[in-house]
Design goal:
Layout: H1 6-22, H2 25-32, H3 35-73, H4 77-86, H5 91-125, H6 130-146, H7 148-162, E1 171-173, E2 178-184, E3 188-192, E4 198-202, E5 210-211, E6 216-226, H8 231-246, H9 249-252, E7 260-267, E8 271-281, H10 285-303
Antiparallel strand pairs: 1-2, 1-5, 2-3, 3-4, 6-8, 7-8
Helix pairs in contact: 3-5, 8-10
């Protein structure tokens, strides 16, 4: 242990007192006009830049939502009104997607401005950036090799949200699983299949997406009747049922256009099949098909039109 003698301690105290006596308001101000002022100016500029960029992003988000609302109000006609809700022009869905991208841009701006500000301040105060940047470069390369899949997942998630490939509530086919989307994040998509199993699918591993909830769907209804029935009586009756169905207000909102009776689809020795095609809003084809079959069945019963005969039961040989 090294001890300082009385002369050394007194010398140090005298030097400290001399330095304190040399501190004047002018010297303090001159010191502040150097590196401290540059540091404060850099931080202040970074705060202002971040505020301006975030303000611009918020303005862009508001303008995008407003333009979408105006475009949505101009969609004409029955088909346009149905498709406006079914093809991704729905207000709430578009609003959520726009806000998500705005939040992502806010985070990117904050990270980038903070990083540049910290590096600039370090350079001003004299901290050598060469070794730090070299270490960061080596670490970035190592992280890039080790986290390739993570970066791929995030990039895929960004484009999926930006392009509105699917959203919460959509029924999608990812190749690995088919189900209803419950959550969409930048890294994974969570969906639930018809049996109730929850699937977590990494965005970077999705090669193709089949969305059953965007745009419109087609209901194909095949009506079999007995081969002995007169089609000149059967087909007009089915057309009357279709017209009445299309005029029903509760179903009209699900139909893009009036269903079409396209005619005979197939014939066998006992049955003739008449096909109906209805263009519906997304995911409404199943309910439309069931309702059409029920109405056609009731009309056949009232008119006495019979279906194909039931094949006789043939017991298996023992």
């Amino acid at each position: 242990m090294v001890t300082l003698g009385p002369m050394t301690m007194s010398t140090m105290m005298e030097q400290l007192l001399q330095q304190l006596t040399q501190v004047t308001p002018t010297s303090v101000w001159e010191w502040f006009l150097g590196d401290p002022l540059m540091v404060v100016s850099t931080i202040l500029a970074a705060v202002i830049l971040r505020w301006v960029l975030n303000r611009s992003i918020a303005r862009i988000v508001d303008v995008t939502i407003a333009k979408h609302d105006a475009r949505r109000e101009r969609v004409p006609g029955r088909a346009g009104r149905v498709l406006a809700q079914a093809t991704g022009l729905d207000h709430e869905r578009h609003r959520q997607r726009t806000l998500t991208m705005g939040s992502l841009l806010h985070s990117i701006v904050t990270f980038a401005v903070t990083l540049v500000t910290v590096l600039t301040v370090m350079a001003i105060v004299g901290i050598p950036l060469g070794p730090l940047l070299a270490s960061a470069g080596v670490g970035g390369v190592a992280l890039g090799f080790g986290a390739q899949s993570l970066v791929k997942d995030f990039l895929s998630g960004i484009f999926m949200i930006l392009e509105d490939q699917y959203g919460v509530g959509d029924i999608i086919d990812t190749g690995e699983a088919i189900g209803t989307v419950e959550e969409v994040s930048l890294r994974v998509t969570r969906l639930r299949d018809p049996s109730g199993v929850v699937w977590y699918v990494r965005n970077g591993e999705i090669v193709r997406i089949g969305n059953k909830s965007q745009g419109w769907s087609t209901a194909v209804v095949d009506i079999p009747v007995s081969y002995a029935e007169n089609l000149e009586r059967v087909i007009p009756l089915i057309k009357d049922v279709v017209r009445a169905f299309d005029a029903t207000p509760e179903w009209k909102e699900h139909l893009i256009e009036e269903p079409q009776v396209v005619g005979v689809e197939s014939m066998t020795g006992t049955a003739v099949t008449v096909r109906i095609i209805a263009k519906t809003a997304a995911e409404q084809q199943y309910g439309v098909s069931r309702e059409l079959r029920e109405r056609v069945k009731a009309a056949f019963d009232e008119a006495g039109i019979k279906g194909p005969p039931i094949a006789p039961f043939a017991p298996t040989a023992r």
